[in-house]
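Field reference: sequence -> structure
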Amino acid sequence: MTEAVVEQVDILIVGAGPVGMTLHLALAAGGRKSLLLDRRPQQAQQGDPRALALSHGARQLLEQINSWPARAATPIETIHVSQKDGFGRTLIDRAEYDLPALGYVVRYRDLAGALAANLAADAALAEAEILDIAPSENHVTVTLRHAGRLRTFQTELLVHAEGTPGDDPAVSVSDYDQHAVICEVTPTPGHAKRAWERFTPDGPLALLPLGNEYSIVFTLPPAKADAVMAMDDTDFIAALQQQFGTRMTFANPGKRSRFPLALRLRDTLVKGNEVWIGNTAQTLHPVSGQGFNLGIRDAWQLAEILLKNGVDRSSLENYAASRRLDRRGSAFFTDQIVKTFSNDFGPLKLARGLGLLALDLCPPARHFVAKRMIWGARAWP
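Structure field:
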């Protein structure tokens, strides 16, 4: 009986979404080979209608691997931050930072398409069902089913980039008791490339310019999310208008979808010859749009370290240490915003208003926040 062939791969990346593809292309640009595995069909991502908020820092990284979807990206030139039924607001303007935009809104499918266009024909195995992962001292063995047959790979490094983890004892979970209802609406007047972050007692309401529409993230307690999902278009627009206020009106709501919100943090990014990046390492609340940008920075920093130092335990430990400030800082920032603003407690509302006003009137404080939203920990002094 012939022994099954064990295929050798330098670096195996589980998950061929935008974060996994970013890592693969960054490694390829430095001359390092990797193989992407994905359980989904090759074209699955092209049907994904979600909108992503990308920082200008993410654009700078993606441009280096020729994967910035320029024609599909709507720039955010200003961000207006305020609270419902309370005073105080902060306005962040790209002109203060001499940038073409603070960030951009891109459909998931357009970003995935721009990255996939740069993949070699043999860069990824789609519809690959992983059956077993067996770590050992110097490598990881992965057994999978692909195209109707069993295949076994042995790799120096297994990178997990497959998205939000399920139940996993290595991941701590803090449930916000909030759901995000997302869809697109037409604003009147037009959005003028302005994003809004509107804090309400139910949770933050984000409006992100996308083409001529707004992509909205309507955060609500689960029972209210149930009600909003069941509304007809007229009632839905009325509910949205009631939360946002009268500065503009909305019409033509698109298809609605929803997902529950929680903070998930993997306790250890590295275990033996395995490393976790992107949503599988940390999943944040969507407030301020930090989560996906954090995943892009994960991929980029891992590629930089591997290209410079190769794959060994010290390189992986260096990666985990180098990501600590960015991921913990981003998680703490978003978590505290949600907990501080998602209530209607009078004294706290007053304090929030004073804080927003102070941020608006004090450029150094505003710049401190804005630069870290744009570049993450790379902007820390």
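Note: The CA atoms of residues 223 and 230 lie 11 Å apart.
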